[in-house]
Amino acid sequence: MKIIDTHLHLWDLSKCRLPWLSEEFAILKRNFDLTDYLAEIDSKEFEIEQAVYIEVDAAPEDTKKENKWVHTLLSEPNIVTGSILKMDLLAADIDDQLQAYSKEGAKGVRHVLHTSDSAPGTCLHPMFQANMHKLGENNLLFEACMRTNELADLVVLAKECPETTIVLNHCGNIDCNLLADNEVTVEEEALVKQWQKQMSELGRLENVVCKLSGLNVENPAALDQLVDILLDNFSHDKIVFGGNYPVCLLNQGLSEWLQLVKSSLDRKNVTLQQKIFYENAKKIYQLE
Domain ranges in the chain? Predict the structure, then answer.
């Protein structure tokens, strides 16, 4: 099966510091390169034809080093054919950076919104929204990594910036296991209902894409429920697959994640599988 992986992280800790990489993530505290990534994949069943590099939330002072490293990676013959680079969308002077990113062939940018560095409501700031308009004007998309309980903010942002394509990372960072858990708390039940409501609202917006990625699947039935919710709310042309390597190792290996998604989509049809694993990404990320 041919696959385009729209969510690949790689890093060299001698070049870029990752402040978020605490002891809690000890398994990730080493370098990860393309060889490591390819070794994780069951090549008998899955063929990664292309991959999109996603910025790794490096220390701000190391962003230029990361971008230079990524530029070199993209210039070499390998499967990485697109990049999403880090950008501070609260900055007042992004025009030169936008031009540089466009010239380097970046497909879009990411300003992470799910960490403690981003206060609630960050994406509603006037400067953030003004810069979002500029992304669309420069044919760059925005990768949205949000806290689950703030997806309503993304609805507002997407409506405010209809010319900019927004790719929602990790299905809104929902704990998908809650969908098949009969013993959820009142708070968890409310969160799931809120998530479903906002996924429905996001799915109706032409400029929002959902990335099936970054989930910790303890119960395959929960993933089936999540996939069904995505298919009920998003156009089947607006869902893409992401591996989230190597962060996925905190939950399951990359081949296991690929198999979980394939098994869930096996309940549907081959045409849908091809769209989510390959065709949609080709169009949305404008890959050759």
Answer: 2-284
Q: What gap in Å lies between CA 109 and CA 235, rounded to an integer?
A: 23
In the structure encoding, which two tokens stand for residue 103, read together? 């010239």
- Distance, CA of 103 to chain centre: 22
Residue whose structure tokens are 């994949």: 41
pLDDT score recorded for residue 151: 98
Q: Which CATH number fits domain 2-284: 3.40.50.2000, 3.20.20.140, 2.30.180.10, 3.40.50.1100?
A: 3.20.20.140
Write the secondary structure of 9-20 as one string of H (helix), E (strand) and C (coil).
CCECCCCCCCCC
Q: pLDDT tens, 109-166?
A: 999 999 988 999 999 999 999 999 999 999 999 999 999 999 999 999 999 999 999 9
Q: What is the C-alpha radius of gyration for the chain, rounded to an integer number of angstroms?
A: 18
Could you report the per-residue pLDDT of 64-94, keeping only the tens digit for each?
Answer: 999 999 999 999 999 999 999 999 999 999 9
Eight-state DSSP code of residue 217: -
Instruction: Give the other-Cβ count within 10 Å of 231's Cβ.
Output: 16
DSSP letter, residue 1: -
Please tell me the distance from the alpha carbon of residue 184 to that of residue 47, in angstroms, as a whole number.
38
The residue among 89, 86, 170, 70 whose CA lies nearest residue 134 is 89
Token output for 142: 């925005």
Q: What are phi and psi of 221, to 5 degrees?
A: -65, -30
Name, in order, each residue with C-beta under 8 angstroms of 153's C-beta and a sequence gap of 6 or more: 120, 121, 123, 124, 146
Which residue, among 231, 215, 237, has the nearest Cα to 267 in the 3D structure? 231
